[in-house]
Amino acid sequence: MIPNGFRAPETLAAQAMGRVDAACGAITPPIHPSTTYERDADLGYSRGVCYSRADNPTSAAAADTLTALEGGTATLLFASGMAAANAAFLALAPGDHVLVPRVMYWGLRAWLLDFASRWGLVVEPVETADLAAVEAALRPGRTKLVWLESPANPMWSISDIAAVATLAHAAGARLAVDSTVATPVLTQPLRLGADLVMHSATKYLNGHSDVVAGTLTTARDDEYWDRIKLAQRQGGGVIGPFEAWLLQRGLRTLFPRVRWQSASAAILAEKLAAHPNVAAVLYPGLASFPGHDLAKRQMQGGFGGMLSIRVKGGAAAAIGVAARLKVWTRATSLGGVESLVEHRASIEGAGSPVPPDLLRLSVGLEAADDLWADLVEALG
Ligand SMILES: Cc1ncc(COP(=O)(O)O)c(C=O)c1O
Description:
By secondary structure, this protein is of the alpha/beta class. The protein is built from 14 helices and twelve strands. The protein has helices spanning 9-14, 59-70, 81-90, 106-119, 131-137, 161-170, 183-186, 223-235, 241-251, 254-273, 292-298, 314-324, 344-348, 368-379, and strands at 74-78, 97-101, 122-126, 143-149, 174-178, 196-200, 214-218, 278-282, 306-311, 329-330, 340-342, 358-362. The chain is globular and about 75 Å long. It binds pyridoxal-5'-phosphate. The site of pyridoxal-5'-phosphate (PLP) has 16 residues, from helix 3 and helix 4.
């Protein structure tokens, strides 16, 4: 329940729903490490919790905050973003047809094309930024789920969530959105018509590179959501209490972090676009970016903290730039307080759609001037 006076999402996030511990007045929630809970004499659970693979009271602050920020009905917290995404697909049935983006987070793409396809899902990659391609690929009655990622890692292409929701629903399919990069600060997919929103909470939601977690938030409590809950309970991919506690703490600073990171990314994108050794800058906030107009409509208050550059001179030149950076850290992942750089093509390997001259930049909370000076030195 949203407390009285908590109207703005910034307020909800800052106080993680404004709850005060009833037992002692603590303004941050306790951590409940207990795996199990006392039964009533009649064998029931009148206090609502039974066993920590099914429910853990520590999760409530983060889950309820996210439900409110996304405008959903309920949220589940998972052991990782991958566990959350897996549950959304495993709640379908073998033989179901699913549309997924051609360029998306590579780990999930690999799982879909390997494990999920062997399990029986008919997985079809499609250019989801192209509405005509989505419409042509939908198989009415057979397509059960359309998966979007917007902006999509690591080229940051923007898909039209509202328009794809209309197309998917007309074909009898649901729409799920991996909104890890946009965060609820910049986009709320459920308010645009999506049925499910997923986050790798490892990234911006926690924001400090010290938790691996994932989330699913549903627009409604229906039989698909029941199957997702079952997939989590029986599959066991639940978040631990300490991670859930850290996640609620991270969520409290989500708005200022994402706004600062978006502002710095926008400054860097403009400067990089004018650098002689940069062949292209991929950032939805640049007027020259193909999805810019759509991003302006779909994202509020910024275009995110992620951008990629294509370095003149190909793969070797790009790897050389990353090697010379001192303030930016060469590391995988994104959305933390520290700025990270990664040569994605080397990580993704053969079959990756990512150009070999591309460096992915995750902008942190450092001074944009320091980040820019480091880039200038490394780019030469
Ligand atoms: C956009 C996106 N979705 C999902 C994932 C998977 O999340 P996790 O690493 O928390 O399993 C990632 C991880 O990098 C990601 O970037």
